[in-house]
Design brief:
lyase, cytoplasm, alpha/beta, EC 5.4.99.5, binds prephenic acid, amino-acid biosynthesis, phenylalanine biosynthesis, 357 residues, D-Maltodextrin-Binding Protein, domain 2
Amino acid sequence: MSDEKLLPHRQAIDAIDGEILQLLNRRAAHARAIGELKGTGAVYRPEREAQVLRRIQDLNAGPLPDEAVARLFREVMSECLAVERPLTIAYLGPQGTFTQQAAVKHFGHAAHTVACATVDESLRLVEARQADYAVAPVENSTEGSVGRTLDLLVSTPLKICGEVVLRIHHHLLRQNNDLNGITVVYAHAQALAQCHYWLGKNLSDSVRRVAVSSNAEAARLAAEQPDAAAVAGQTAAEIYALHKLAENIEDEPDNTTRFLVLGHQHTAPSGRDKTSLVVSAPNRAGMLNRLVEPFTRAGISMSKFESRPSRNGLWEYLFFVDIEGHGDDAAVRQALDGLRERAAFVKVAGSYPAAVI
Ligand SMILES: O=C(O)C(=O)C[C@]1(C(=O)O)C=C[C@@H](O)C=C1
């Protein structure tokens, strides 16, 4: 096939690219005007972003898949927002963690990300207004809740303003492309657990499995030690220039982590929202039923109901509850009034759009 046949298509693509470029800059000019009208208010509007992405997916007639167009528009909005004012996002580092990946998935590549040593520190940075938002892992489909994040939700003055759902793929990474001669595998304890079966089947028993503070730290160590491998994700592989000896080695095919986005603002309804609550109640027979009843009566479904020991009293529990709907919805407001009559403590940790991509 000669390239001559490609020519008319390439000429068409050049013309279309020119139009796309003009349209993108026209879009950015509107975003800049919106930014000026917002003045000192929050430039990031989670509800509007969710609506834009949902609308684009509804409009999409292909051949690009819905997920691909959503990803492209995610980046377009990220750049438009940066024209208004660039955002700083605090995340659990070091560079290359899944939390950083979640931050980029949610805010796009124009956002500036700041690595923090702990989830506590990432929230503190936002509380002190040294960063605009924090992204924190809250639960994994294989390993369950991240207790520290739940504990922090109880006391932080920040509001949840978004959620990010990330498929977690683990790879076996090494300096060179050889499965032989590995004496140690580094990974975060959760990643070791999520790949337990694969590692047992594919590596000899003499290979030591060493838990380290994060997957990115595991990749960093593997980049320094020729006889070491790491279990980590794509971003860590790229940052530390490691070879992928094996891809997608997680035992559970749907291994997914959910992250929360926390900031100072109240988020308006987007049309498809969730509300997260922290509830405590006296430890009495029938109490669980009494707590759930106001939601059942209002026809509101729950996507999470989890208990955790309260740090104040022995055998006292806090309940972490996610419901469908927004705190401004009449039905949710009524259910919350009913809940407040029954519970000793109710905190609305935030209402936010359900994840779109
Ligand atoms: O609609 C707005 O408020 C905008 O600032 C525009 C825009 C966009 O690019 O569409 C950018 C940032 C906001 O988070 C939401 C949407």
